[in-house]
Amino acid sequence: MKIVIVGDGKVGYTLTENLSKEGHDLVVIDSNPLVLQEALDNLDVMVVNGNGASLEVQRKAGVDTSDLLIAATSSDEINVLCCVLAKKLGCKHTISRVRNPEYAQQLQFLREDLGLSMTINPELAAAREIFRIIQFPSFLKRDSFAKGRVELVELKLADDSALVGRSLDQIHEVIKTRT
């Protein structure tokens, strides 16, 4: 997949590092040549020095033929502008890092009009995950599906637990719940 990442700070670099390991075709845009040089030296990526919200810079990075643009700068406004521009250029999908809760609520409302595929608020996502862990600390693993309406959990059961040896369709009989 061809992915353009705008912003090579901590978040951008970590994304680039992980996506590079998966073998994606990556282009990193940043206005700081020193951080771009570090990415170029350590990762299998192309780099473009400049403002990611610039039409010329996005064209130089090949955004028009990209599958995904991820805007992860420290500025919510720049991130949204990068995504709007990328969508207009023909990029298939865009993801914008938006930290301000006020913007996040507005962007949910405007997502289709702006052409955003997804917005991510890292602080809010971390807070939600911490809450989920605190809610049920005995869960070894907890995954959500169907937009949070269904959860699959992993538990370690004691050898003498009434649930040992039971199939999923029998669990409601043991814990007295409705199916």
Helix-strand string? EHEHEHEHEHEHEEH
Strands of the largest sheet, in order across it?
A: 3-2-1-4-5-6
Structure summary, number of beta strands: 8
Unreliable stretches (pLDDT < 50, length at least 5) are none
On the 0-100 scale, what is the average pLDDT? 88
- Determine the CATH superfamily of the largest domain: NAD(P)-binding Rossmann-like Domain
Going by CATH, the architecture of the largest domain would be 3-Layer(aba) Sandwich
Terminal Cα span? 41 Å
Determine the strand fraction and express it as a percent band: 15-25%
Structural class: alpha/beta
- The CATH C-level name of the largest domain is Alpha Beta
Percentage of helical residues? 40-55%
Summed up, the helix count is 7
Q: Enter the CATH topology name of the largest domain.
A: Rossmann fold
Rg on CA atoms, Å: 21 Å
Domain unit count: 2
Q: How would the global form be characterised?
A: elongated
Account of the 3D structure:
The chain has 179 residues and is α/β, with parallel strands linked by helices. The protein is built from seven helices and eight strands. It has a six-stranded parallel β-sheet with strand order 3-2-1-4-5-6, with helices on both faces. Strands 7-8 form a two-stranded antiparallel sheet. The chain starts with a strand and ends with a helix. The model has no long low-confidence stretch (mean pLDDT 88).
